[in-house]
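A quick aside before the break. I want you to see a complete sequence-to-structure record at least once, exactly as it would be stored in a machine-readable document. Don't worry about memorizing anything.
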Amino acid sequence: MEASEIFDRFGGYVALAAFLTLLPVLTLYVSQRRDLHRMRVWMLREPDHPSADLAASELLLDRAETELEELLEEPETGTTPSSPLPAATRVTNERPALERITMERAALAPHPRWRRFAARATQPRVLVALGLVALLLAGGGIFVSEQLLSDNEERGPAATGAVDPASVTVAVLNGTSVNGLAGRVGSDLEAAGYELGAITSAVPGLETTTVLYADGQQRAARKVASQLGLDPGMVEPVDRESRELAGDFDVVVIAGEDRAR
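That is the input. The structure line, written in tokens, reads:
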């Protein structure tokens, strides 16, 4: 299996796993965004609610303290209940929790500028645009990676320049029952400048001409396939049987029925 095929297969698995992982997160995000939108609308509709809520809490606490002092007052002493402290003083001295809650609310309140930015960035059309951009970037990354892998396969790790046909020995095998087919293909390659190797027969019945290569000769095999007008997908590593038939070679061409026609 070639590197590009491995990349395509495992890349598809990773993309599917990422989609399945992000699907529940997207559902949760939509739900939370709806709740946040409702809270934002409520805050804009009632901007004085926090202060009114704090004042109501102070009033309830004042009433409860007054009732508690009346219950705990000793009748025989004849003391009179002291006047309650003002609400602001109670917040500072006797009710630090309310002061802390007020400060936390103020700290958690978003800055107006960030609030406007968040409101615009979380709009559906903006999210859709960001998703499309992410898909385009992912597709571009996959395309570039495939091109790099294809270039590496065609050029080889340490090869530079073009393949010299005179330095490539090509053996031709006849994979059909047509007499003389291997010789004709070999003559065409020899006329193109390739060094001709063994001309012999293989197991008949091959439909499509195939080009096989020895170790380190993939670029040369692709050039031979291009010379014969074959698809690059018909270039494969040499198998043991073809190696034994071809003898000394760099590239083996097994002529099929398509060459006979």
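Two observations worth writing down. Residues 3-150 form one domain. Confidence is low (pLDDT under 50) at residues 155-161. We'll return to this after the break.
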